[in-house]
Amino acid sequence: MDLYEALYTTRMMRRLRPDPIPLETQARILDAAVRAPNGGNTQRWHFVAVDDRGLIREFAELFRQARAIEYEKYRTGAGPMAAPAPGADPAAHAETMRRMQGSGNYLADHFEEIPLLLFVFAIDDLGGANIYPAIWSALLAARAEGVGGVMTMVLRNFEDKVNELLGVPVGQGWKMSAMLALGYPRGRWGVAANRRPVHEVSSRNHWGEPFGVEVPEPLWSPRETAGLAAAG
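Structure for Nitroreductase, as requested:
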């Protein structure tokens, strides 16, 4: 797969099929993840792959409860999802949240069917500087394998229970960074179309100064890959 195709089409997939992900595929995803850059090559990360159906059922109930907490925050104007980014259209933000809630409802309602949960833990991670490159590498590798996924942090609302269920040695300093729900997607891959363009969110030399070039449309599209295939 072309690198730009992976970068442009790896997006959050919440509608997942129950088909199991082969262990060899899981190994390739995690082997790519541990190649990610990290400060001092300390590799202070640990991944817990969960495919036990009983455990997934327990996490399903926790996920639904945790998600209800987050949407109650949103309803009351609190929490990280409530306010749009500075300069963004509030109506567009509300519509994005409506669509996300709809696809998230599917994930919550079918959580027991998810074939693989990947819990990611780190120690002293400086705000995620070391672990998030590894998470993104895992999602990109999953995309190359035809596996979709979504990263969520809502289970941090029940961090103690998660630690208990997984037997996390919290005394050593391990903390959950995120959970990935992984599976073969029901929908199609595609370029995220609802992004503000580069020139609206970028400056040059000083904040607010023009970036110097406008990018009204994505600079990569599936047509480019189709053209390359035809040329080959």
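Residues 195-231 form one domain.
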